[in-house]
Design brief:
The structure holds two protein chains of two kinds. By secondary structure, chain A is mostly helical. Chain A contains eleven helices and two strands. Chain A has one domain. Chain A has a two-stranded antiparallel sheet with strand order 1-2. The longest helix of chain A is centred in the first third of the chain and has 32 residues. By secondary structure, chain B is α/β, with parallel strands linked by helices. Chain B has 27 helices and ten strands. The longest helix of chain B is centred in the N-terminal third of the chain and has 27 residues. The chains are: A mainly alpha, B alpha/beta. At the A-B interface, helix 4, helix 9 and helix 11 of A face helix 5, helix 11 and helix 13 of B.
């Protein structure tokens, strides 16, 4: 393997890892806070891409990219909160809440995807690249868009981490997820923090969707495959800490990039799933997880 | 004390046979291929959804790789029947076998996991199977799948001919076999273990159920017919495509399962038909089709958490409530006959628990209140009305949902404290503050509750056919004979046989004299039985026992010596502070209603007790 191939594999792995980290963080945020698995996360990814396209694309409103991203963030947050109040909140006191929310978020995902189909039609679209051009150091080529993706994703994740760690609403949200009853006794408005977690999760999914939309063609079902990857990442890394899915995402991203090189495009996903299952068999709580008897 | 008779002994058999007959006639009435096609798909979905219910609903094991088992059946058929040239019929059977084998493989990682992890891992496993299928394109055809699979034939007759009628009946037979299998499994030892592990895992394990073995068997049992349905589906459509792994198919099946009602066999079958027909009907609306179905699923989950099956039960309950309520109104017209039986005038009293029918001999004599048993009526004491009315003002009333009283809100009115409250209202209405109380069976508990509440001065307290309880439900099993027809006491709907059995044991074998007691079973609001026993927890049982131990009220137990329901030893062992004659008194040859079977001996004993209580 020559250095340029190795460099491009690692570069691809890091880009994938950054995307997966963004998706998986949102997924695990909802999981740790609400204790449910959000199957509409994939639809959020597609929705974010389409909303950003609507505002940013020259074929539609053609707003400046920064403004379009800000609008997308706002829209995604609102939709995430609304989805929480419609699809999750009514069931949170039920004993079978995990199963019920699986079906309601699956149904919500079907509604969102078909709504995208109705609004924007089946034709594939693509978001214009955020920045153009490449930077080259000796023979190693790196597109500016890739650099930007890595920087922005890391900035978002660090920002989210700081928010959860040092701000009052972030700490309250963690309190709610750790002990709902105690948090309630302290006067925290639990449904609001649940909605906040859902909204933030939707924002990360939407932004991940924007990046996916710049790399690939968009269609309403584009979120399904990233959702599966986010799922692998979350299970692989565990959800013990905010950072566990992020490390796991980069490991999975690099593993995928190398598997594609070694086993080919078709077998690479199978390698990932197999890795995940092996990890689960040996350490069911995830690679960075702490042992818990039940969720 | 779980009463769970087999299907042919309940009312479930007839609707089932009617449904089966309708499905057999259907293809001859609607001979358009399209109509049959929709129902054949519904058969397949029903098989897959009900099988899934075994692991998900009954077992609480969220196996989201179930759809992959279906796909395994499809590809087994495709590879065996087309590539290897096996007989299509054998390939269908083999589909069940390979699916069960794959289920065993799925079971291995799942054995160690719980809750949401099972969902995630099984989704991952199903994706893994999917990836293996599309990656080995030289065997499975990859993403484009396999086409022109061999069709099913009997001799030279191709089942797709004559408007696919052959496939229709093979599908129906497969569905019937699947339902029979599930019915058998859920009632078997394995099925009980599956439910026990779901309801209380650690208790079940402590009772010697192997979690690993049961989980593996659950998944395998749910896989057999799923795989066969997959193979049949492949033989019918003659295509094997990886679409079967898709999230769309998963959503469809999961919605059939939840809309039908998880944890029931029949609910998902109904939902399979409803959703396939609705989905076909909406197929002209493009993207709106999926939106409408998804919305409907959410609405059903919100408003009918138990699914269609629960909705159907509610409907049945409402119909039964309306029927019994009408029957009570109708029977109010027979007042003269009832008054002739008891010799006491009857009147209606409006209470917060509905209008209550009271029989009251009146007069300025000491009051004696009789409280009747479950699914009976105040006229059960007709022989006491006649015997005691010279010396006492005899009063009795029908509980709500019983006799000619109206039906009432089951949540608030069908429980023992509510009945005691009604007794207080009735006595207040009669202007009585001191009373002798005698209660029979359920009425015995009402009598104990009435005395323990202490709002009315009870001068003497007698019970028959009642086991005083310390701890519920534990003492319930000790105080009664669980092999008797008492297991029927909380059953909401009675079949003819059950109704006869219960009335024979609880009152008297049917005769001209006891016919009016047997008539009560058809009138009694089924919810009164179901809620009364379900709400045993609202009674302060220790307070009743404390009252009996303290012995401020003279107390007598007059049981039939041949009472089929009671555990006489249990009753004799309890501690009483002021028990008449020091022990429970047996009425020779008396049954659960000794005052009706052996009126003379009973009346004499009761009379002696009441006299002794006055001293």
């Amino acid at each position: 393997m020559d250095p340029i191939t190795l460099f491009s594999i690692i570069k691809g792995g890091l880009v994938l890892g950054a995307l997966y980290a963004l998706m998986a963080t949102g997924l695990s945020l909802v999981w740790t806070t609400l204790g449910i698995f959000n199957f509409a996360h994939g639809a959020f990814i597609a929705l974010g891409a389409y909303v950003a396209w609507q505002f940013a694309s020259a074929d539609a409103y053609g707003l400046p990219l920064g403004l379009a991203l800000a609008v997308t963030t706002g829209v995604m947050f609102a939709i995430g909160a609304v989805i929480h109040f419609l699809l999750v909140k009514p069931f949170e006191r039920r004993a079978d809440v995990v199963l019920i929310t699986v079906i309601t978020t699956l149904a919500g995902s079907a509604i969102l995807e078909n709504a995208l189909l109705l609004i924007w039609g089946p034709r594939s679209k693509q978001i214009p690249e955020l920045v153009e051009g490449t930077v080259a150091v000796a023979e190693f080529q790196l597109a500016w868009s890739e650099v930007l993706l890595l920087v922005v994703v890391l900035a978002i994740l660090i920002g989210l981490g700081l928010f959860l760690r040092y701000t009052r609403p972030g700490r309250s949200m963690r309190a709610v997820s750790q002990n709902r009853e105690a948090a309630q006794l302290l006067g925290l408005d639990v449904p609001i923090y649940f909605a906040l977690a859902f909204g933030l999760s939707a924002v990360t999914a939407g932004l991940a969707g924007v990046f996916v939309g710049t790399i690939r063609f968009m269609n309403p079902a584009m979120g399904a495959e990233p959702l599966m990857k986010a799922l692998i990442v979350v299970i692989f890394g565990g959800i013990a800490r905010f950072s566990s899915p992020i490390y796991a995402a980069f490991i999975i991203g690099l593993l995928e990039a190398f598997s594609i090189y070694v086993f080919g495009l078709y077998w690479a996903p199978a390698v990932l799933f197999l890795t995940m299952i092996v990890v689960l068999l040996i350490k069911p709580e995830g690679l960075f997880g702490k042992y818990q008897r039940t969720l | 004390m779980r009463y769970d008779p087999s299907l042919h002994r309940t009312q479930g058999l007839l609707p089932l046979l009617i449904a089966l007959a309708a499905l057999i006639v259907y293809p001859f009435v609607f001979d358009a291929t399209y109509f049959r096609h929709v129902v054949i798909l519904a058969f397949v979905f029903a098989i897959v959804a009900t099988s899934w219910d075994l692991s998900l609903g009954f077992g609480g094991l969220f196996n989201f790789a179930h759809v992959a088992l279906f796909a395994v059946g499809i590809y087994t058929y495709a590879i065996l029947a087309k590539t290897l040239g096996f007989s299509p019929w054998l390939s269908i059977l083999a589909g069940g076998g390979t699916a069960a084998f794959v289920a065993l493989l799925i079971a291995l990682p799942v054995l160690r996991l719980d809750g949401i992890y099972v969902i995630l891992v099984t989704i991952a496993l199903s994706q893994l199977i999917y990836l293996v299928v599309i990656s080995s394109s030289d065997v499975t055809g990859g993403t484009s799948g396999m086409v022109t699979l061999p069709t099913l034939t009997i001799g030279d007759y191709r089942l797709s001919r004559d408007g696919r009628i052959g496939y229709y009946f093979v599908g129906l037979a497969l569905l019937v076999a699947n339902l029979g299998f599930l019915y058998w499994v859920t009632r078997s030892r394995l099925g009980r273990s599956i439910v026990a592990l779901r309801d209380n895992k650690y208790y079940a394990i402590a009772r010697g159920i192997s979690e690993a073995r049961t989980r593996a068997l659950t998944l395998m049992a749910s896989a057999v017919f799923t795989g066969m349905a997959g193979a049949f589906y492949a033989a019918y459509l003659r295509v094997a495509s990886p679409d079967a792994f898709g999230i769309g198919f998963l959503t469809l099946l999961l919605s059939i399962l939840l809309v039908g009602g998880a944890g029931t066999i029949w609910g998902p079958v109904l939902a399979a038909f409803a959703i396939s027909v609705a989905s076909e009907w909406l197929s002209g609306f493009g993207a709106w089709q999926n939106i409408i179905i998804a919305l409907a699923i959410i609405l059903i989950v919100v408003f009918y958490p138990g699914g269609l099956w629960a909705a159907l039960q509610e409907l049945r309950q409402a119909a039964d409530g309306a029927r019994t309520s009408l029957m009570a109104r109708w029977r109010r017209r027979e007042r003269p006959a009832r008054e002739a039986l008891t010799g006491a005038p009857e009147r209606m009293l409006e209470t917060p628990h509905g209008s209550i029918a009271i029989a009251d001999t009146g007069g300025d004599k000491p009051a004696l209140l009789f409280l009747h048993g479950n699914s009976a009526c105040k006229e059960a004491f007709c022989k006491q009305f006649r015997a005691f009315s010279d010396a006492y003002r005899v009063i009795s009333f029908d509980y709500p949902g019983h006799g000619v009283s109206s039906n009432a809100d089951p949540e608030t009115s069908y429980n023992i404290p509510a009945y005691a409250e009604i007794a207080e209202t009735v006595l207040a209405d009669c202007g009585i503050s001191e009373v002798y109380v005698f209660g029979w069976s359920l009425g015995g508990y009402v009598a104990l509750e009435l005395a323990a509440r202490g709002n009315i001065t009870v001068k003497a307290l007698g019970i028959t056919g009642t086991s005083p309880l310390n701890m519920v439900p534990d003492d319930f099993g000790r105080g009664y004979n669980p092999d008797s027809h008492l297991v029927l006491a909380s059953k909401q709907y009675f079949s003819r046989t059950e109704s006869d059995n219960y009335a024979n044991s609880a009152t008297a074998p049917i005769s001209e004299e006891s016919a009016f007691l047997h008539r009560n079973l058809r009138r009694t609001d089924g919810r009164a039985r179901f809620y009364m026993l379900g709400r045993l927890g609202v009674v302060d049982w220790p307070r009743q026992m404390r009252m009996l131990r303290e012995g401020r009220i003279p107390f007598a137990i007059l049981n039939g010596s041949d009472d089929p329901f009671l555990n006489h030893d249990y009753i004799a062992r309890l501690k009483y502070g002021n028990l008449w004659n020091g022990s429970p008194q047996d009425i020779p040859n008396g049954r659960h209603a000794p005052f009706f079977n052996q009126p003379d001996a009973f009346n004499l004993e009761l009379f002696r007790f009441l006299k002794s209580a006055d001293r």
